[in-house]
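Example 3.2
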Amino acid sequence: MGEIDFSQPKYYTNRELSWILFDHRVLNEARDKNIPLFERLKFLSITASNLDEFFMIRVASLKDMVNAKYEKPDIAGMTPTEQLTALSIAIHNLVDLQYSTWNRSLVPKLAQSGLTIIGSHEELSPEDGEFVDRYFEENVYPVLTPMAVDSSRPFPLIRNKTLNIAALVQKKNGKGELEFATVQVPSVLNRIVLLPSEGKARRIILLEEIIERNMHKLFLNYTIVCAHPFRIMRNADLTIEEDEAADLLKEIEKQLKKRQWGEAIRLEVEEGCDKRLLNILREELHMEEENIYAIDGPLDLTVCMKMYGLEGFDHLKTPKYIPQQVPELPAGCNIFDAIREGDILLHHPYQTFEPVVDFIRQAARDKEVLAIKQTLYRVSGNSPIIAALAQAAENGKQVTVLVELKARFDEENNIVWARMLEKAGCHVIYGLVGLKTHSKITLVVRREEDGIRRYVHLGTGNYNDATAKLYTDIGLLTCAEPIGEDATAVFNMLSGYSEPLAWNKLALAPLWLKDKFLYLIGREKQHAKEGRPAHIIAKMNSLCDRDIIAALYEASVAGVKIDLIVRGICCLKVGIKGISENITVRSIVGNFLEHSRIFYFENDENYEIYCGSADWMPRNLERRVEILFPVDRPELKEKLLHILQCQLKDNVKASVLQADGSYEKPDKRGRSQFQSQEAFCHEAVLAAKAATEDANTVSRTFIPEVHH
């Protein structure tokens, strides 16, 4: 077989269209009748939230390219213009399926289960009408700001993602032209309004319907000719000229304000919207036809998450799973003593995130601890880790924290934390110019009887105690000296730009992590050529780096068995004759968000296994600070291999990539059902139970909450 040119577009799938397929997989969970009804509501909400972010960042970025006349094709050979055209068709189909799921499946099922959703204020009975009118006058009217548009009042600035009601009004005397008016549906009020009902049954109406019914009270001298809800999405992709920004903190704060007023890129309107009203919106917002979405149902389906929160429907929800204790770290133990006994692997959210918080808390209070260094990318709203770091600084420890200000949609949050940590006496670094610091690492330097010892936590997920209950991630606690030396080098590099001559165990992006992966893939290829065992299993969120995909194709051609577990975007194609027949790709969409990155290389029956913060994407491998760490302890390697094998066995929540680019559920004929996330829940409970003297204190096993 001659040399294959893997730069040819025919070997790759467009990343944006691949992402749409991922959101379809999430939507399939909302359509699955085997899932509790309210969990299906939650999945529908997730698809809407995902799509909003996709527009604000990915679609916006493509539009910027088109506006800049940038026509270079992507790895699949599509120009930005071609991508936008294809995406418009794909997204319209996705939205149609979202609302078909809502109208035909969920709304009738909810009504049968005791939750009736009044779709229009015109359906209200006289008694209900009286109730909502009174509710409007007492609770809503004082908050509203109606805006008319005329020669003295220009078209108002409509904020990103806000829900609004547009109206055409005419003076009551019938004289004069139709005028445009709008009012924002206030986000400070609950969008779901409960109507009076008897017994356990609930009836709800959405706030915009109440406002629309009472629009005439906002424009007293006018007749309301028509009124329809609308919503716009704006370009929220921040452009920061870091090299020219004297103060990165101030530059990001300035750009954040622009996010509300970026170019409008999507308009959602109620289906059947008056054409005259729609024309005004289209002209004022400079909106092309293909970016207008006529919606048959409530705009902004993230409201489903609020419906999920309604009380009285626990029987239609999956009970919460309680993360279990880590057997090696019993409550109240000295975490440093435990780590000295051997490396400890953490598997969240099946096992609690509390040991990671305790690691920082104990370090903050321990008089022998001299320094704490940590990278922070996304943290929770009331972060116990931030509080512990602040306490450590107040206790006189040397505390260095790298806060990544460029963490998308968490910029504002991170600015607040950065300032708070500085006030507490921490040394705060704001990331590196041109790079995002996405690595998850904590270093604790402790003085002990035999000298200085370094304790390190490395992870695949953020130091966020809230998402740690929802995202699947791996953590490693170790005091191995080679990793401790590397951890020190990482922080010296981040704070002082000094790179060591050699590294012991850690591989860093953007320095040589990509080369490391290419070497490991190439080694398996060589083993296959020599007739030795060769197998790669890789689990990640996204795969779209052309060099990595080409290396996987070459390994496949050589005979390497390659099993990929890729939750979201996958630009690799399977089933290409003579090229990717040895490659399988599966995506798991379950109750927890699959987030861990685990990489297995058989290495001629002396297998190596790594975890890290990076996906196989150009941005992770070339434009971010990322860390890949090996897991060397044999029993921990076995645990990680077990995780991968369970996910490859999953035939309930997995979807398998087909040669035509579609995803299908595995064939379960003749096989018992196996759900990997459920299995990990059971295993964590059994392990905690075995490590606890009193088995009665262990929580019952439940399937987890949903988040995507």
